[in-house]
Each structure stands twice: as C-alpha cells, then as structure tokens.
Automatic annotation (TrEMBL):
Protein's recorded name: GNAT family N-acetyltransferase
A Pfam family the protein falls into: Acetyltransf_1
UniProt keyword Acyltransferase present: yes
Residues in N-acetyltransferase domain copies: 19-180
Entries under Gene3D superfamilies matching the protein: 3.40.630.30
Keywords of the record: Acyltransferase, Transferase
Length: 181
C-alpha cells in the first residue's frame, strides 16, 4: 500500500467546473455505499447485466475497501460524483500477464446523472498521473466481458485489449494503456 498521508487532494477542471479527487475517508462511507448500490442496480436494470451485486456493498465491505486499498473519491460542487481504487497487485485476473510495473484500476464508478460529461476519462487521466508518480509505466483495468458498452468505452479511452479471464460464471476483458512521459 502506498503512503498517501502527505499527498494533497487534486483539483482538476472539468467542463469549467472544478472536480476534487482525494483519498477516501471512513467519513465517506455512506455516500460511497449509495453510489455503488445505485450503479449496481442501474447496470442490472438497464443493461440486464449483473456486474456488481448491490448486496456486496455492505458498510463492512466498503470500510475494509477504504482501509486496505488506495480508494479515491471525487466531488464536484460538494457532491460525490465518483469513486475508484488503484491497486498494485491483481494477479488472479491477470495471471501470466501480471507484472508489477502497473497500477490496476478497480471499481471505477461515476454517478449516473454525470454520464457522458467526461468524468470517467478525467478519473483515468488522474489515475495515470498517480500511477506514474509511483514509478509505474502502465495503467491496467478489467471489466465484464459481457458489457459491450463498457468495453467500447475503455477502447475509446485508448486502452488496448490484452486478453480475457474466465471465472466461475463470469468473464472479464483485460485492458491496459502505456503511460507516456
């Protein structure tokens, strides 16, 4: 785990508004839970995909997630608009393709009312800068193989398909983007 105690929150401009990205705190739990539960329900109801089960996002699970991972929250005008984590190991999914010169984005979510406003792209750019600051050269992530819209989105963001992981009853496509100096 990377020590973030001295890292200041980041501010970036998005469509003439300021978005603040910072390390998640236990105080963010209620809002983070609402965000993930809403996303899980939306994916299931609108896409017919069970990518995330809303029952997964218990307070205990999310508290452990925040305490043990590099989890970041993003606020726009005081409203939580998204969340994601950066992990440094994710061997099960990546198998033989795993290497330690990458940061692995996990559980990236954007509040539905901000869909299409560039927040996800902003998160990826911010995460890339963060990963680079830790001396790594690759941004990697996985997403459900049976979610064509999400797969197309990551391709449109310059990520390159690297393979597929088949788990028990689900599959994930693996993507990466080299971090250019």
């Amino acid at each position: 785990m990377v020590d973030l105690s001295d890292r200041k929150p980041s501010k970036g401009k998005l469509n003439s508004q300021w978005i603040d990205i910072r390390k998640a705190l236990i105080e963010d739990l209620d809002e983070v839970q609402k965000l993930y539960v809403e996303a899980a329900k939306w994916i299931r109801s609108s896409q017919g995909i069970i990518q995330w089960n809303e029952d997964t996002f218990t307070m205990n699970y999310l508290e452990q997630f925040i305490r043990e991972k590099d989890v970041f929250v993003a606020y726009l005008d005081g409203e939580l608009v998204g969340c994601f984590s950066v992990q440094w190991k994710y061997e099960e999914i990546w198998g033989e393709l795993f290497h330690d010169n990458a940061g692995y984005i996990h559980r990236l979510v954007v509040l539905r009312k901000y869909k299409g406003q560039g927040i996800g792209s902003h998160f990826l750019t911010w995460a890339e800068d963060y990963i680079k600051s830790e001396g790594k050269k690759w941004l990697r992530l996985d997403c459900m193989a049976d979610n064509p819209a999400l797969n197309q989105y990551y391709l449109s963001q310059g990520l390159v398909f690297q393979g597929r992981y088949d788990g028990r009853g689900w599959s994930a496509n693996l993507y990466e983007r080299e971090i250019i100096d």
